[in-house]
Model the fold of this input.
Amino acid sequence: MDDNPAALSRRCTAMRDTLSRGGPDNAGLFVDGKAGLAMGHRRLSIIDLSEAGNQPMTTGRHTICYNGETYNFRELRSELENLGHTFESTSDTEVVLKAFCQWGAECVRRLNGMFAFAIWDASEKVLHLYRDRIGIKPLYYYCHNGVFAFASELKALHAGLDGRLEIDPTALGEFLHYGYIGAPRSIFLHVRKLEPGHRLTVSPDLAIRDHCYWSCTDFSPPAETSHDENPLIDHLEEIMTDAFSRRLIADVPVGVFLSGGIDSSLVTAILAKNTNAPIRTFTIGFAEKNYDESAWARRIAEHLCTEHIEEIVTPEHAKEILPLWPDIYDEPFGDISGIPTTIVSRITRRHVKVSLSADGGDELFCGYHRYWVMNTLERFTRHLPSFLPRAAGKMLGLLGSDRAASLTRAYPKLRLPAIKDRMRKFEAVLSYWNGSARGAYPYAVGYWLPHEVARLTGGYENPRPPLGNSRMDLLDAMMTWDLKHYLPEDILTKVDRATMYNSLEGRDPFLDHRIVEFSRSLPLDMKYRNGETKYILKQLLKRYLPENLFLRPKQGFAVPIYSWLHDDLMEMVNMHLDHDALCAQTYLDPAPIMDTVSEFRQKRGSVAVDRIWLLLVFMMWRQRYRA
Done:
């Protein structure tokens, strides 16, 4: 980009320092002036806190910038030492660098961890980029008009490429449809996300080669059901004990996010049994009782004798976090549970520097309620002509899903936005039924429907691939779809940005690739049996906890966004979604938005709360980045 090494250094430094919250402990810079390349790094010191662990790190002709952790680095180091390598630090970064020197580009297959890293080969003038198998750590890159740049967060590219970036209308439409933007797309044209399980090589002429080194679709369950389940439970327990324990490796204090659900309870229980010191656990609750699960987390913490800390999230927290949303999630991001995730990350950081969460359990072990709904629909409609479900959907639309408000008045324990959202999605699934739940699944997980997005943006086609082929069981197809899209681009993005913004390293023990591969190879009835989700996890958890502590209806990490937006945050809605603000932008048609906002202001049930939220997020992001 800059021929002058000094200018290149300044630009790289500016990009690097946008990431200072996630890397407050050290700042490093490497410049190869002859090659026109610079790499910057901000460090959050976790393993080897000395200067020897600082980055960028160079050995011989290779230089690395590494983000993440490799949990089997000690075994790899021992193997490399036996091969003649010497080490100047005790960091995992140096082990990864020496592994590349020894085994080349395919060294990534030996790594057990979460990572996004770049290695510069000064002799070959080739840049190698890597992203971990599941996509826990992010990596963006830009290639256009003779310029190549990469970063772990989009804000860094925005700082280095200001004036070059344009919104991608397809990605904007995808955001409105799903609430997030899936790899390889980003909100900007010419900026791509390296896909999970992929590595990239960039040659001196900026030719790019993309290689897939791992895919969850490489592992398929056997057709037969299981007869003796105990060996499978034993094997899962063995893998999980090792995987969870490895994620305690650090030279700083470590804690666990404990929600009280199946997955986080299992992580905490296994660690509590296999470590000597008490586990530190952290949870948050809500003043709104319909949303608060903190009491369950507290009971589990008491049973496992953890050092437990909890805090109640209020609308005041939301008022504090929302103005920061574009800085935390630096492209439009619609998962409202990012607010409590940011709050629990901030609380946790006061006590520890690393925290474990339990993301991935739903996608790996069939945990979402929508899986049951879609599977049931498929079973009952498979022999019916398609027009009958579509007619039922149209009828439901005519009746109006505002009946959700009546339901919640009759049954106060129901959560209005959740009921409204489910009724609306159920209506969409039926209305666009094409004979199979596979084609309807994008409607079950969407917000603005495709025809609504087309009206807003002037044209839209769903960029996602179909929901698997008919040879794969529907439940497996839905889990695969979520594992490839929803998990990395929504759930893991939410946790990574919230933790890094608070200078906290988040780790995901369920996403050890050995657990993923084991889950993918399990007979389906070990995940979903007679309508019961997460069957094998519950059988394993019974070895650690009384059933009355965890066998209860799944609630999910929901947020009382409807009441917050109406009662506490309406000022922000009025500010960002007023007529003048909407007319000042050129990406969305203001007319349908104003209709939706007007409907929302009238408090008609929970009308449009999810869609209002996505519009608010986009308008805040656009203002922050002058897009």
In short: The longest strand covers residues 62-70. The chain has three domains: 5-214, 220-365+477-549, 560-627.
